[in-house]
Amino acid sequence: MEHTLKGVPSSNDELSHFGVKGMHWGVRRGDHPDVSRSTNREARKDAVEFARAKQFYGKGAGTRRKLIKATVEGKSKSVAYKKAFDHHLAQQDSSKHAAKAKSERKRKNVTASAGRGIRGTRHILNGNAQYASAATAIVVGGALYAHKAGIDKVILNAGKTAYSKATDPDNHRAAKQMLKDMGIG
User: Fold this and answer.
1) Domain count, the chain
2) Is residue 142 situated within a structural domain?
3) pLDDT, tens digit, for every residue of 78-98?
């Protein structure tokens, strides 16, 4: 029996295969062939963490490296794990891990800085200004002065007025016309 697909004749006794030559069913690329799947997955996960810890720097980096090194050394008593770990560690892209370490460090620094500012503010408000940083003391002092003098209400009202003007379509047209007259828009 002949069937046609887009004008190409084919018969039912043909078998077509779209795999990779030499590929075995159920074997995943990048896996180590001599190791069980669970050991292989564990070794891959540890290799990624080991490579990341190697590139990480700053506060806590030494502890992170020691912990993953101790974990790997403990598991490396198994020959299969050691073989799979070495295989996966060799496949790690260190430039990718370096970029991730840099962004992680940046994120941790921002979080720590914000935490210090909040703790400093709390110290100042509780009367323990000696535990706050100079920058926090200046910011909190300025905010307290603005509140006592009523400047914060003036700023809030100016912000509300500016927002209402920015959302008004007539003011949009006037601003565009002004920019056109100046030769900018």
Assistant:
1) 1
2) no
3) 999 999 999 999 999 989 988
